[in-house]
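Dear colleague,

Thank you for sharing your sequence with our group. We've completed the structure prediction you requested, and as agreed, I am returning the results in plain text so they can be pasted directly into your records. Please verify that the sequence below matches your submission; if there's any discrepancy, let me know and we will rerun it promptly.
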Amino acid sequence: TLLIPSLSQNLKQFPRKLRKPENLTILTNGGRLPEEARAQTLRYLAKSVGESYGSKEVTAFADIDPNGVGEISPDVTVEIIDENGKPLLNQAGVIRVKSTYMITGYFNDPAATKEKFQDGWFYPGDLGIMPEPGKLQVIGRSEDLLNLSGLKVEPSGLERKFRAIPSVKDACITALPQPDGGNQICISLVLAKNARLEDLQAKIFKTIPPLISNAKIVKFDALPKTNTGKIQRNRVNEMLRERLEKERP
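Please find the predicted structure tokens below.
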């Protein structure tokens, strides 16, 4: 059993030439395991991977199956809500959770307590879908939601479609704030060697919704990530600002 940062560190250091153990199962906790880390774990380290989703404030409260859907623990209440606090079923929204043994705040940090603990609920900062009562699918971080003319879009689904395009090695979609208060949607790509952005733009635009058809596509050599393999969207936006500033006439 490993925390996700520990697993990611092991993946970086593990010699690729060593033979993978035949029957090793690795269990992770501490959040959602990124797809890239899961794929590398199955390729180099383990026959199977299990995930436990939860937080130190509430403890683990869902065991995630290989399809990304978790069985919610019977002693924990989980809801998916919209921006008005209305519970949702089979729709994406913000995850909130409560239990009789969760903590009620952070020591000497009233600002963080006010943000994360509201009306008896704890808000871990994740997005999810409840496909049916008692089931939970974690799909991303609420801070990653893109605001597209009032429509909230979770980016990871689009990014998976981008990565499925031949010659696209990695992808990130962000909303870059503009001086007029609006957002410029930007798609940042890492391409295979000798691949040309001009040859892929048509496929990219076929993938995105019409609402963001004015997205700007930019090529980078690599995208910044955390130790757990999560794209650092704020740093991507910093890279975009620098690139676009250089391109201005």
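Summary note from our side: The CA atoms of residues 62 and 72 lie 4 Å apart.

Kind regards,
the structure core
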